[in-house]
Amino acid sequence: MKKENIGQIASDFKTQVVILASFVAIMWIVEIADFVVFRGGLDRFGILPRHEIGLRGILLMPFLHGNFPHLIANTIPFITLGWLVMLRNTLDFWIATVTIVLVGGAGVWLFASPAYHIGASGLIFGYLGFLMLRGIFERSFAGIALSVIVGSAYGSLIWGVLPGRPGVSWEGHLFGFLSGVLAAYFVSRKTKSVL
């Protein structure tokens, strides 16, 4: 491997670490502030379906969590799946993230139950949908292999798109997953058009 290639890989990895660390740092800072200063009051900035004020939650939902166990449960899958999304191209992460936040958030706002919906799990399920379907859309060996690996490691999460435990936004999971699939379709078309 050429020295320039190693340098590019190291540079890309550093960028990816900074992006993921920044997202996670914001989530933790917001939750600490919510716990210490606002006593849980920031949760009302989540998505409130079919209320105009709830539209702001489309952008804010991934950064708000109900408590520290909720945030801890989301941190590792966010880092792992987020990094796998950007593994081939960091731009894929941004396309997937914007699509999941906007399209998935709009789905929650339009169709979810009337309560505040918060948490990064919509993004996590979106990344899961992206990774599981991208290889199929691309019809590439590497993409399908990654889809199989992600499906084996995280496939059991898929049941989270169905109604289950009270207080868990299964709608956020469902619309996150579906918007991740949509993002995978967009990215696979972009990749094919470049080839």
Structure, explained:
Helix content is 71%, strand content 0%. With 195 residues, it is mostly helical. The chain has a single domain, classed as Up-down Bundle (Rhomboid-like fold). The chain is globular, with a radius of gyration of 17 Å. The two termini are 23 Å apart. The model has no long low-confidence stretch (mean pLDDT 94).
How much is the average pLDDT? 94
The H-level CATH homologous superfamily, spelled out, is Rhomboid-like
Give start-end ranges of low-pLDDT stretches: none
| Alpha plus pi helix count | 7
Protein structure class: mainly alpha
Helix content, binned percent: over 70%
Percentage beta strand: under 5%
Number of strands: 0
For the record, the CATH architecture stands as Up-down Bundle
Question: Can you give keywords for this protein?
Answer:
Rhomboid-like fold; mainly alpha; 7 helices; 195 residues; globular
In a nutshell, what does this entry contain?
71% of the residues lie in helices and 0% in strands. The chain is mainly α and 195 residues long. The chain has a single domain, classed as Rhomboid-like fold.
Question: Topology, please?
Answer:
Elements: H1 3-38, H2 57-60, H3 68-86, H4 90-111, H5 121-138, H6 141-154, H7 170-194
Helix pairs in contact: 1-3, 3-4, 3-5, 4-5, 4-7, 5-6, 5-7
Subcellular location: Membrane
Main location: membrane
Domain Peptidase S54 rhomboid: 58-189
